[in-house]
Amino acid sequence: MELCCLDLTVQLLPGQIDAGDSVAQNRKLTFTITLTIAPNLPQTLCVRITDADDPQVLLTSCVSAADYPGLKAAQGLLVDFQSFPQHLIQLLQSCQQQHGQLQPRMGVVLSGCGAVPGLLGETAGPPSQSGGVVMQVVEHNSFRRLCHLAMAVAPAATATKLRHLADCLSQLQVCGMCGV
């Protein structure tokens, strides 16, 4: 069951391997949040991040009900797994509402993007060099940047990426037939 699909412009910061490149960029990314409920399996929340301008960008993160207590304890979260998807959606919607303001209070930051081909215009290095990618939902105030949530995200598996590219191609073909 797909819960939410949000288009956000987020600030992308260079990863540790690209520490010499201090240029941050804004990109419009789509966050799709899906809650999988299957009999005899734990519920799983999946976050999928795509870039309409670059179809090779596809990041995913999944948190199961069984994994959530560790995330909750590590980050001091106050909600249970049943409430987590709605709170994540609310945080992302807050970021979306702040977009375009001179000094937005809420934002999404992806760091370690050198591990994702195309995200900062480079190709991925070997796994030993290109550490993980972290999505942070942050709030800025006059004193500091507060991280509400940090989730590890990873480039999607090859089969998932191929399905995504096929969907993108299908959309282009449909738009071409419609004359759009």
Automatic annotation (TrEMBL):
CDD domains assigned: HD_SAS6_N
Record-linked InterPro entries: SAS-6_N, SAS-6_N_sf
Ranges where the Spindle assembly abnormal protein 6 N-terminal domain occurs: 22-151
Pfam short name (any one): SAS-6_N
GO cellular component: centrosome
UniProt KW keywords: Cell cycle, Coiled coil, Cytoplasm, Cytoskeleton
Localisation per UniProt entry: Cytoplasm, Cytoskeleton, Microtubule organizing center, Centrosome
Main location: cytoplasm
Name of protein: Spindle assembly abnormal protein 6 homolog
Gene name linked to the record: LOC125179446
